[in-house]
Every structure is written in structure tokens, then in C-alpha cells.
Amino acid sequence: MAETKSSLRELALIFLRLGFSSFGGPAVHIANMNDEFVKRRRWLSSEEFLDLLGATNMIPGPNSTEMAIHIGYSRGGVPGLIVAGVCFIVPAALIVLAIAVGYVQFGTLPQLERMLYAIKPVVIAIIAFAVADLGRTATKTRFLIVLGVAAATANVLGLHELAVLFGAGFVSFMWKRGIGIGSTVLRAVVPLEMFLYFLKIGSVLFGSGYVLVAFLQADLVEKAGVLTQRQLIDAIAVGQITPGPLFTTATFIGYVLAGTGGAILGTIGIFLPAFIFVAITHTFVRGLRKNPAAQAILDGINVAAVAIMAVVIWRLAHAAFVDGFSFIIGIAAAAVLWRFRGASAWVVLGAAMIGLISDLFA
Questions:
Q1: Which end of the chain has less neighbouring CB within 10 Å, N or C?
Q2: Which residue has the higher pLDDT, 251 or 56?
Q3: Is the distance from CB of 308 to CB of 161 less than 8 angstroms?
Q4: What is the rounded CA–CA span in Å between residue 51 and residue 301?
């Protein structure tokens, strides 16, 4: 990893900006970080970035947040780890908390559908550029190209992302050598219970923020009955229309069920394990490339991670390109990103404005 240190102020400003502007979910967050730290600032090589991405896929928790924490650790040690993670999380948590307050008061969400409509095509363009960039590094041999195609196919056919990642790592290792979590049911909901529940979720949940939804459905809607189906769907929608980590769904649900205390402790609970896991594994990841066997496993995991991102594009495109106007937005976004590779945050914000303005004339 790069040894050059950065000031905590510099890390804070960068990750605050990313936290406020990274709409679209983990795949887009990863793409924005690749653009910021590999392409623009050259803090990491593509290979180093991919190694960190592979590491985040091997531990529980929100992957894009863990990437932010890893990068902060690389540039500023333990203080950098804390600053990068907190500054990436807090903007999203504050925005979600504000929406949750309005939701509880008025019983509905702000009318932001048009903004989401305009942002989705831009999201596809951003992820596509990231996959292209990372793919060139990950597919460095014919074997890894074939393995990437196989990983994408397995994921499309329904094999879980974690199984794809570890399976690809095992296959790459063998080639190189020549050869539910339990549920805590909340009943009388208080802030401390929110903390403990989401601490457990953050400690054991692999996969994207969408995997989180399945557990919330089972625990809070079906078993405990403290959250309605509509409230869960609204919580998911808030995660989609706000920037930053999708795990800030915990902020929204925490406020709905237990007020401001529940929102704060739910947020801390779900993100705290990510800081601990990254602090434990970061130094270990740095030494993996020195071990041939570990290098082979990491190569397999990396190419599978890029393949899964490619599948994400394919799946999200169906929801993003719904008519001619959304297609035009996507093409325009791709053109701007091609010409100005560091402009992803501005492109997203521009699309959001287009969506809001178009809503006035709808």
C-alpha cells in the first residue's frame, strides 16, 4: 500500500464530499473511490485498490464503507481510519435522519421520485466506467478472464455473491498449484435494543445493503411485528434516494422505532464492526501479495468481484432505462464522464437537479 501520509483534514474533506455525493449504492461508491483515489490522486494502484476490494468482500459489513475505512487507514493510520469512516457515514446518516423526522411527522416520504429517476441512468454509467477500469487490472491472464466470465454467469444464475467470491478464490488457488444468522426479536423497542440488534447485524452480515433488507423483513416485520411492510419499503426507498452507505437504513428504522436515540445508536451499532474488522485485517491484506498461494486466491476473488459489479450493471439497467429521456440522460452522463473522469459527483448532482426541475413541469 502507498506509504505517503495525508492530513486528517484532507481525508475528512474528501470523504465528507463523497458521503454527500455518492448516490446509487455500494457499486457506485466503489466506482467513485476508484475514480478519486486511483485515477485522480494516485494514492493507490489499481492492483492495490482491487486487493482492498477483495478484502472487504471477505469480512462482514458494508463493503463501500469498509473501503473508505481501509483507504483512511492507508493514508493516516488509526486516526485516518476513524476520520475516513466517520466522514463517509455521517452525511448519509444526517440526511436519512432528517427524512425520518419528516416521515414520522407527516406519515409519508418527500416526493423525490423524479430525482431518483434521473440519477439511475447516471449510476449505470459510473459503474460501467469503474468495471472497465478495474476489469483491465483484474483480468491479467486468459485464465482470469475465463474465471471472471464463469463468476458472472454463476451470479446471474442465482449463486450467492459470497459463494461466487470464495469459489473463485479457491479455483484460482487450485489452478496456481496445478491441480442465517440467528434473529434477536425486538419487542419493547428502546435505543439500547436498537444498538444491540444492529451491532449483531453489522457483525455477521455479508453482502450488499439489499441483503440487509431480507433480515429486516424476517426480524422486524414478520417475527417482532414492530415495523410494517410499508415502513420497510419506505426505509429501502430512503436508502436509494440518499447518498452514502445503504446501511443508513438503520438510522431511519432506529428513529421510526425509538426516536433520535434509536437512530444514533442504531447507526453506531451497524457500522462499528466495520471499523474493528478493517483495523484487524488491514495489515494482513498488505502482506497477501508476498505469498504466492494467497496471491492466487486474491486474484480469483478480485476478478469475481469485478464480475459481480458487471452483473449489477445489467440488473440495474432494467430499472434505470425506462424511457427515451432516461436513455438520453445515461448517454449524456457517459459522455461527460469520458471527457472529465473526475466529475462523477457533479454528474450525479446535475442529474438530481434535472429530475427535480422536470418534476415541476410534469
A1: C
A2: 251
A3: yes
A4: 9
How many other β-carbons are positioned within 10 Å of the β-carbon of residue 138?
Answer: 26
pLDDT digits (tens, 9 = 90+) for 308-318: 767 767 766 77
C-beta neighbour count of 309 within 10 angstroms:
22
pLDDT single digits (tens) 180-198: 444 445 557 788 888 999 9
Q: How many CB atoms lie within 10 A of CB 35?
A: 21
Q: Cβ contacts of residue 10 below 8 Å, gap of 6+?
A: none
Computed over every residue of the chain, the mean pLDDT equals 80
Among 311, 301, 312, CA closest to 152: 311
Residue 25: count of CB within 10 angstroms of its CB? 21
User: Which three three-digit cell numbers place residue 140?
Assistant: 491479467
Distance CA(156)–CA(177), nearest Å, equals: 28
Secondary-structure percent of the chain, ordered helix, strand, coil, rounded to 5: 80, 0, 20
Cα-Cα end-to-end distance for the chain: 50
Gap between the Cα atoms of 258 and 190, Å rounded: 6
Q: What angle do CA 54, 56, 61 make, to 5 degrees?
A: 150
* Per-residue pLDDT, 198: 92
The SS3 assignment for 65 reads helix
Per the rule left: phi > 0, alpha: psi between -120 and 50, beta: everything else, 83 is: alpha
Crossing angle, helix 113-138 and helix 142-156, to 10 degrees?
A: 150
Residues in CB range of 346: below 8 A, 6 or more apart: none
Report d(CA 194, CA 274) in Å as an integer. Answer: 17
Whats the size of the chain, residue-wise?
A: 362
Q: Backbone phi, then psi, for 291, in 5-degree steps?
A: -105, 120
272 by Cβ neighbours in 10 Å (0-12 / 13-18 / 19+) ranks as middle
Reference 182, options 157, 153, 203; nearest CA is 203
pTM over 0.85: no
The pLDDT value recorded for residue 157 is 80
CA separation (Å) from 277 to 60, 111, 254, 301? 8, 38, 23, 18
Per-residue exposure over 224-250, b if at least 16 CB sit within 10 Å of its own CB, e if not = bebbeeebbebbbbbbbbbbbbbbbbb
